[in-house]
Amino acid sequence: MVVAGDVHSEAPEVVVKFLGNIMPFNELDAETLHRVARQIKVDFFPKGTRLLTAGETEITHLYLIQQGGVKSFIVDDEEEVTLKDYRGEGSYIGALGIIRGTPANFNVETVEDTFCFLLSREIFLDLINNQPGFAQYYLKSFSEKIVTSVYSELRHHKMAHRGDKDLYLFTIKVGYLVKQEPRTISADSTIQQAAQAMADYRIGSLLIHQRGNAEEIIGVITDRDLCNKVLALGLDYNELVETIMSSPVVTISSRSICFAALLKMMSAGIHHLAVEKKGKIVGVVTSHDIMLLQGTSPYSLFKEIGKQQTFPGLYPLSRKIPEMIRNLIKEGAKAGNIARMISLLNDHILERLLSLLEDEMGKPPVDYCWLLMGSEGRREQTFKTDQDNAIIYADPADENQRKLAREYFAEFARKAIDHLVHCGYPLCPGEIMAVNPKWCQPASVWHEYFDKWVAAPDPEELLHVTIFFDFRAGFGKTSLADDLRKHVNALTRRQEIYLLHLARECMSGRAPLSFFKNFIVEKDGEHINKLDIKRQGLMPFVNFARVLALKHGVKATNTLARLNVLSRKKVISEELLTEAVGAYEMQMQLRLIHQLNQIEAGILPDNHIDPAGLTELEKRMLRDSFEAIERLLSVLKTKFPVA
């Protein structure tokens, strides 16, 4: 029997057999294998045990997982967890840190009761130095593994000294980019003085501090402000700088990763972020800083989209998104952030396209808003994205304006949908698009639609209609969408019967697991032995969050955002939130990797995953995520009891 903590003078057969079945130990000759096996320790770690702590733990042993599994992750200064990967039986932990001689790169915890064989650092390094095939295996596995934490770390380590540019969004902290103290100027300085200071310091921005208090930062001025607010408008240079500053200053923690900074810039449409450390602004980072660091970044594509002046110029840009997302997956981005990045880029293409279309067709007769529905509305798009959109426009003042609006938006929608198809966004099979006259209507009609749907729900239409409840503004007069959201929230909070219908539809489903916890897959047809991870796995989370969001007046449409708001409102427990978010993220990650593999193989991406192709640990994690669905359904049953 192998006892935890023992070092064996004779190689126990269980250790020899284990090592002989995993790479690269199975490449060792028999004598070396037995010598190594005699030095192995075995230890047991209960579920939830922290094995390594990022930046702190000195790695003294290579951990070889004999039974059980672990997860690796990082935690930022906002306590947000970024999951890097899971590892199961036959996998290892700590190799990179030992080879580099550094503390642990990530936090590592057991996700179930786990037995590990421990090989001392000294023996491991001896094998690396004296067994060429052994060393080659680890270096090769580091550079090829797609969704693992060590990928970006090793690439950074191997390439940094050569000056190569790579995608470091998830390994470099924002504070690393700060090279000098922030330059400031008083709010009562003139624009001329600010421009001179920027020229003297050779910088593109200045922080503005309160008059008489250099510690209180109240705004920022950039070189773009000088161009767009001063030169373009002919503003007097003697005006005070506070008249053109942007306020309040958008900040980010110095400990945040660059990806967080990039998302913040792209979401806010800004190019500068003030970097904060312990409550004090210590510098400024720009989009240019990140682009220089990476060479190629999502921001470069974002910028390329924004400068396009023709429709054909936009067409190929959406096809660059998969390659950009591929890099993010390799870096270990969590699925929610990847989906958000896809939405940001898709939204930017839409914004540029509709702006060009307005220029071509002239000003519309009334205000309008282009609505995004379904996964677009929830900001949960993946590589497989078709169109779900609509137009809501202000109610015309008279019959003549009504006719003009109907004709204008019919033509506008036809051209927009056609351009979107050329950009690579397929038509919606259900025709939920602005080109369908039913979904291109004035605000009063949209209000009537929701009144009808909520007052007398048609069971046949119920699931079809839910797609409309996830709408958000995509372009145009956002107040039209905001007013519609207020109307819908007021309606649904009063109409318990409608919510009960939605809840019953959610509760009629079940997790795709049999009584014995086997996956329920297609028995025949095109997708035999596969399961639809979107319909069977992810949609129960989406539906759960939607029903409770409508019941409690939550404005957010994104599933994870809805769950977080519901937790803050004490509608669901923090424990359920953690479980649901983890399960949802895990399934989204599998979905993204599945679709990426299909794209790289030249296959049209879909949502049908073959469980047989997953590792044993992935299967267990997927089962756990499916079991979370049952817990969500049980919560719904308590909130919407069925007589």
Keywords for this entry:
single chain; 643 residues; alpha+beta; Jelly Rolls; CBS-domain; Four Helix Bundle (Hemerythrin (Met), subunit A); four-stranded antiparallel sheet; 47% helix; 15% strand
Please provide a brief summary of the model.
The protein is built from 24 helices and 20 strands.
Task: Describe it.
The protein is of the alpha+beta class. Among the domains are: 13-162, Jelly Rolls; 174-293, CBS-domain; 495-643, Four Helix Bundle (Hemerythrin (Met), subunit A) (Up-down Bundle). The protein contains 24 helices and 20 strands. The strands form 6 sheets. The chain has a 4-stranded antiparallel β-sheet with strand order 1-8-3-6. The protein has a 4-stranded antiparallel β-sheet with strand order 2-7-4-5, with no helix packed on it. A 4-stranded mixed β-sheet has the order 17-16-15-18, sandwiched between helices. The radius of gyration is 28 Å and the shape is globular.
Q: What is the approximate shape?
A: globular
What distance separates the N and C termini? 56 Å
Rg calculated over all Cα atoms:
28 Å
Largest sheet: 4 strands, antiparallel
